[in-house]
Amino acid sequence: MRTIRKSSLFVILGIVICALIFIGISSLEAQNKGKKPDKPGKPDKPGEEEVTWAVRIPTLTEALNDDLMFYGMDDIDGNPYYLNNNADIKVSVKKEKMSGPWRKNYDFSYAFKFTLTNNNAGTGNPPDYVVGFQDVGILDDVTYPDEDKPRCQFPDVTSGPPNCMADFLNHQHPYWDGTKANDYEFFWSWNTIFDFDIETMEVTDLPYYFGYSSDPGEPGDIFKMQTQYRQGCQKEPAFHNFVLRRIVNYWDDGLVNIWIERLDEGKYETDHGITCEKVWRMWVGVYPDTQEYLFVDELYCTRDKGRQTFYYPMKAKGNFHFYVDWIKNPTTQ
Q1: Cα separations in angstroms, 131 against 74, 100, 110
Q2: Distance between CA atoms of residues 111 and 102, nearest Å
Q3: Which of 4, 219, 250, 319 falls between 20 and 30 A from 182, CA-CA?
Q4: CA distance to 43, 202, 265, 268, per residue, from 262 (Å)
Q5: How high does pLDDT run on average in the chain?
Q6: What is the pLDDT of residue 310?
Q7: Residues 254, 257, 258, CA angle at the centre, nearest 5°?
């Protein structure tokens, strides 16, 4: 009888222990529900170097003193530069491996991107952040690719083609004048250098001329600025965008009107009160004694038979002279 009782006791204890284990497993599964388990043996992916980028553009006073045609704000949230905030100011410089159709020509690129977004667009209130052009003069070599489309579709412009584009450029951007319908939403500058590593530049090096690393017959490096009315395509009639652009192959064009140089960080701190890891200056214009052109386009996007379609009512050329500083890990005194 004792043997039977002991056996019964062991059976009951076994059942209780199994039940407790089952409850514990169920509770753990409930806590981890929806979580992906780590793959065994796979190490954490090492993170990339964290870099903060900023853009500095000469103030209006500096631009007037130095005959520069592009200027920035005196004070941007207490800084003398536009610091990336991943929102209405976006600044980045990234080395990217080539993909797409240009992969056959180049191995890598450096993409310089600067975007201002007017979060007040459509309210009639001024943008928080702007840039501006001044002294944009007469435009030449005017053509009308889409000659049946309306031209000079810019707010507060009364002059005809091609001066209407120059007149509109000579404002702050994203444009606003207090009228809700006239508010522009974006200004951006996206530039690309192929097969030249800017990080290897020394302060004593000669400037790198756009398109210098290209072979004859290859596309070349890209310079582009644009002010954009609103996101996406618009119903006609709507205000149009303007574009400043140039694709340069140094060996095909023989042009040196766009270049980049490495600046001395110590002198930069003395001149502007900005300490940084590195700084590069991108120039458009006179070097050393010639002034070359950028293309100037009037552009808009609309829906034509349900399809997104881009039109160019007017194209021209204009001479420009300005620079933009690209700053890596800046701080101010």
Answers
A1: 10, 32, 23
A2: 14
A3: 319
A4: 38, 6, 9, 11
A5: 85
A6: 94
A7: 110
High-pLDDT (> 70) share of the chain, % = 82
Taking only the tens place, the pLDDT of each residue in 51-79 is 999 999 999 999 999 999 999 999 999 99
Residue where the block lists tokens 């030449």: 140
Tell me the C-alpha to C-alpha distance, in Å, between residue 88 and each of 84, 94, 148, 288, 325.
Answer: 8, 19, 36, 36, 19
165 and 106 Cβ atoms separated by less than 8 Å: no
Ranges 122-131, 166-175, 298-307, 314-323: which has the least confidence: 298-307
Write down the pTM of the prediction. 0.83
3-state DSSP assignment of residue 272: helix
Residue 191 φ/ψ, nearest 5 degrees: -125, 145
3-state secondary structure of 232: coil
The CA distance from 106 to 80, in Å, is 36
Can you read off the two tokens belonging to residue 124? Answer: 């009639």
Q: Which amino acid is at 244?
A: L
* Helix residue spans in the chain (DSSP H): 2-31, 60-66, 163-169, 250-253, 265-272
The answer to which of 8-12, 40-44, 99-103, 227-231 has the lowest mean pLDDT is: 40-44
305 Rama class: left (phi>0) / alpha (psi -120 to 50) / beta: left
- Spatial distance between the Cα atoms of 153 and 230, rounded to a whole number of angstroms: 14
Residue 221: CB atoms within 10 A of its CB come to 29
CB of 91 within 8 A of CB of 114?
A: yes
The whole-number pLDDT of residue 304 equals 82
Q: How far apart (Å, rounded) are the C-alpha atoms in residues 61 and 134?
A: 11
Q: How far apart are CA 61 and CA 47, in angstroms?
A: 42
Q: Cβ distance 314 to 298 under 8 Å?
A: yes
